[in-house]
Structure to design on (522 residues):
């Protein structure tokens, strides 16, 4: 009788799995040979970018030029302007590309570039694209453009199908491509933490993300392009045309173009549409003296195989390894900014060790009220006491920070709540890091990441100044321990006994999450 029940249960489980697989609409596993490879290319020899760099002595000697882009409007305009300057190719790699004003405007720039004969290659992680990929599929129809999705869902529509597939392929789909890079002609690259969406260019609601891009002109931009090519050729990068096969209602390219034109005419009052004045920062894009030129810089990019089940291999974790080298060599101080700061037991021990070695450690992250991911905040909250007891200085961004920034302030926020999105560091006041890497287990071991290290004291001072502005009591809470060891949050007017300005639901979610064994996934 017992054996019969077990056989019946096994049969029921098998039938359920078959049904789940059918619901998920699982396609055959994609194989690399089906995907055309992109050969590495030399930087473009023609065009404004190539012509400018040929006249820069430092670039001819192998130095790369760097500029930090702190304003959201500047960050948008640099991308749009560099697309117009491209002569041969535009290679773009992003975690998020939203179908909002910013996303559509930049999509239109890619279409215009393709019409001029520029080769456009757009690689996007599929976590945010599934279910909203029609416009991207239309762009892919252009003979000079191709769109690929990294580690895509096999079911392209339907919440039930997505949920079932997530259950069946949880381990595979857990690994995401978090890199962000905008590369023109192998000559200019814009990297950092920004995705493509209104919120990342300070025109969003309810959050605007405080972020910093790093523009690179010269050899390191070409290094970023070679890294992009490695991802483009990865077995996980699937042409969107393959994923669209068998689907009806694909949007024709001509229809997309006409919709973009009509949509543009109806929204000419949007801040991102306003023509840039001649004095706008895009004027510095081809201005040699606006850059810091140095050969003492490193681009660290995780191997794409990190997202294919090889995340446990140290050789795939280039960004984590490079950061570890810098932490080990610290002598005086380190300033860190991370929106999702989840140091874990190992990271907490490392920062504690630094503090005990008399290295001054300062961390800026989001407050519970400012973060857009309350679950991630739980991983940080459980480590606050230990970090504060060790002497680490903790600052949490206030959600109202945007209200206190002037138009010419470091981040130039629009009229919305602020949320930190910068992933950066300054080591001993002479080297900076900017990239896509959060100080959390997901960036360290699960997702692929990218980051740039530049050793230059002036850039380090500039970035430290930005951090100092952001940690001013008007903009951030200083977290301390009371004499009895209780947490206290201080701003310019008040002291709080619990996470300030956070509603009961956020406090409940973050508090409950602290009880769950999910820290390694945050």
């Amino acid at each position: 009788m017992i054996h019969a029940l077990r056989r019946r249960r096994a049969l029921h489980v098998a039938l359920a799995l078959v049904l789940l697989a059918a619901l998920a609409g699982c396609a055959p596993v994609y194989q690399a040979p089906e995907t055309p490879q992109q050969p590495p290319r030399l930087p473009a020899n023609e065009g404004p970018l190539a012509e400018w760099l040929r006249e820069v002595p430092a670039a001819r000697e192998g130095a790369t030029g760097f500029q930090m882009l702190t304003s959201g409007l500047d960050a948008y305009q640099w991308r749009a302007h560099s697309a117009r300057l491209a002569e041969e190719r535009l290679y773009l790699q992003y975690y998020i590309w939203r179908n909002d004003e910013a996303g559509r405007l930049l999509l239109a720039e890619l279409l215009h570039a393709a019409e001029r004969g520029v080769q456009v290659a757009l690689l996007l992680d599929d976590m945010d694209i599934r279910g909203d990929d029609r416009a991207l599929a239309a762009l892919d129809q252009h003979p000079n453009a191709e769109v690929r999705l990294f580690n895509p869902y096999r079911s392209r529509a339907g919440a039930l199908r997505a949920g079932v597939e997530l259950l069946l392929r949880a381990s595979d789909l857990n690994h995401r491509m978090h890199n962000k890079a905008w590369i023109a002609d192998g000559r200019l690259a814009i990297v950092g933490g920004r995705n493509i969406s209104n919120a990342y260019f300070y025109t969003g609601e309810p959050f605007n993300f405080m972020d910093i891009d790093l523009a690179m002109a010269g050899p390191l931009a070409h290094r970023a392009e070679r890294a992009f090519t490695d991802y483009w050729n990865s077995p996980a990068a699937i042409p969107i045309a393959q994923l669209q096969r068998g689907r009806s209602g694909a949007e024709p390219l001509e229809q997309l173009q006409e919709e973009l034109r009509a949509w543009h005419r109806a929204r000419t009052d949007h801040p991102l549409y306003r023509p840039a004045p001649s004095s706008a920062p895009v004027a510095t894009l081809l201005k040699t003296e606006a850059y810091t030129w140095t050969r003492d810089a490193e681009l660290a990019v995780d191997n794409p195989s990190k997202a294919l089940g090889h995340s446990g291999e140290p050789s795939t974790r280039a960004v984590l390894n490079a950061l570890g080298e810098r932490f080990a060599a610290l002598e005086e101080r380190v300033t860190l900014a991370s929106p999702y700061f989840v140091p874990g037991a190992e990271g907490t021990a490392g920062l504690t060790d630094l503090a005990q070695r008399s290295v001054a450690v300062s961390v800026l992250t989001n407050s519970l009220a400012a973060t857009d991911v309350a679950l991630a905040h739980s991983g940080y909250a459980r480590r606050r006491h230990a970090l504060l007891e060790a002497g680490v200085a903790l600052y949490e961004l206030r959600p109202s920070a945007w209200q206190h920034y002037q138009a010419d302030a470091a981040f130039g926020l629009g009229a919305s709540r602020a949320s930190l999105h910068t992933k950066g560091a300054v080591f001993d006041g002479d080297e900076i890091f900017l990239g896509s890497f959060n100080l959390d287990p997901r960036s360290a071991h699960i997702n692929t990441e990218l980051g740039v290290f530049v050793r230059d004291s002036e850039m380090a001072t500039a970035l430290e100044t930005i951090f100092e502005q952001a940690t001013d009591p008007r903009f951030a809470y200083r977290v301390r321990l009371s004499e009895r060891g209780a947490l206290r949050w201080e701003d310019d007017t008040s002291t709080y006994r619990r996470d300030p300005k956070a509603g009961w639901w956020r406090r409940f979610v973050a508090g409950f999450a602290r009880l769950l064994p999910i820290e390694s996934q945050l």
The chain has a mean pLDDT of 86. The radius of gyration is 24 Å. The first strand starts at residue 64 and ends at 69.
